[in-house]
């Protein structure tokens, strides 16, 4: 056995969690910690603790964590590269992977634990949010007869409290937006498109509706949710909203706006395009437009 192999074997015997950090690995967006723990994030730092507890610090505003064969415990500290004075305005949201298992996820502050996600909870697409100042994440492995098939993992996002409230307030995506809200949404949304509803898919289990959108004009998009498809060169994309909003296929164009959330486009304000043209012109004539965008 080579010297490096003997050293690795010793580490495996002495610790139930292996975290091997290589400085060069931080040059990449995904940092893979062999066999046990992987992070999708820049700016990862690690701190060893006794009694099978490991501590990591993540500097990204969004990313993911995957813990294979969980034993012991893991403390996850989110430390975004912003002024600490801004922390009080942040909300943290986590979305467990569909097949996540093997550990409970707690909210921890000054030694007190509050159960956030119970091991085995299979609530589809469930998102758990809490104020940044409410504490960090403490992930504790549950006793298992066989850990070889267990993987605990989740995506996380840090966002402004106002945005988080809009995304997770049941009534917000369903009620019509005022003229002022529409004009602000045009300026601040992650995506703004003119398009039509091609089809609607209702997912009863997840209590969500998928709106299949044909895009006539793309004003802005943060991520490549809307893309050219097929030989016709038409733009297509999907937007999600709550099932209870009762979205149905219909004629005519809409101005779709919204936010990206865990890699998915979530519906914000969506007036009929002719209504948007009216409110945009009225605001422009009065010099009250918060930003400029071509209405046609």
Automatic annotation (TrEMBL):
Lineage per the UniProt record: Eukaryota, Metazoa, Chordata, Craniata, Vertebrata
Signal peptide: none
Species whose genome carries this gene: Limosa lapponica baueri
PANTHER family per UniProt: METEORIN-LIKE PROTEIN
Entry-linked Gene3D superfamilies: 2.40.50.120
UniProt keyword terms in alphabetical order: Disulfide bond, Hormone, Secreted, Signal
Gene Ontology molecular function: hormone activity
Localisation: Secreted
UniProt main location, coarse: secreted
An example Gene Ontology CC term for this record: extracellular space
BP terms from Gene Ontology: energy homeostasis
Family: Belongs to the meteorin family.
Designated name of the protein: Meteorin-like protein
Membrane spanning stretches: none
């Amino acid at each position: 056995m080579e010297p490096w192999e003997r050293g690795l074997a010793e580490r495996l015997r002495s610790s139930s969690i292996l975290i091997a950090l290589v400085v060069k690995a931080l040059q990449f967006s995904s940092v893979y910690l062999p066999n046990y723990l992987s992070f999708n994030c820049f700016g990862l730092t690690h701190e060893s603790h006794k009694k099978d507890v490991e501590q990591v610090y993540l500097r990204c505003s969004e990313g993911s964590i995957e813990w294979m064969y969980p034993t012991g415990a893991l403390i996850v500290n989110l430390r975004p590269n912003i002024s600490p004075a801004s922390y009080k305005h942040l909300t943290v949201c986590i979305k467990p992977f569909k097949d996540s298992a093997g550990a409970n996820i707690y909210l921890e502050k000054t030694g007190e634990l509050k159960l956030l996600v119970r091991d085995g909870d299979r609530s589809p697409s469930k998102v758990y949010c809490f104020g940044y100042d409410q504490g960090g994440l403490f992930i504790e492995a549950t006793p298992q007869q066989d850990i070889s098939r267990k993987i605990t993992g989740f995506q996380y996002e840090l966002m402004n409290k106002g945005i988080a409230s809009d995304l997770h307030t049941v009534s917000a995506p369903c009620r019509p937006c005022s003229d002022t809200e529409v004009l602000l949404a045009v300026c601040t949304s992650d995506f703004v498109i003119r398009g039509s509803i091609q089809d609607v898919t209702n997912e009863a289990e997840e209590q969500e509706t998928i709106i299949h959108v044909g895009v006539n004009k793309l004003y802005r998009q943060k991520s490549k949710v809307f893309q050219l498809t097929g030989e016709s060169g038409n733009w297509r994309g999907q937007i999600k909203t709550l099932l209870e909003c009762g979205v149905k296929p219909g004629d005519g164009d809409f101005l779709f706006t919204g936010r990206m959330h865990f890699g998915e486009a979530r519906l914000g304000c969506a007036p009929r395009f002719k209504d948007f043209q009216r409110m945009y012109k009225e605001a422009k004539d009065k010099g009250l437009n918060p930003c400029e965008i071509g209405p046609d």
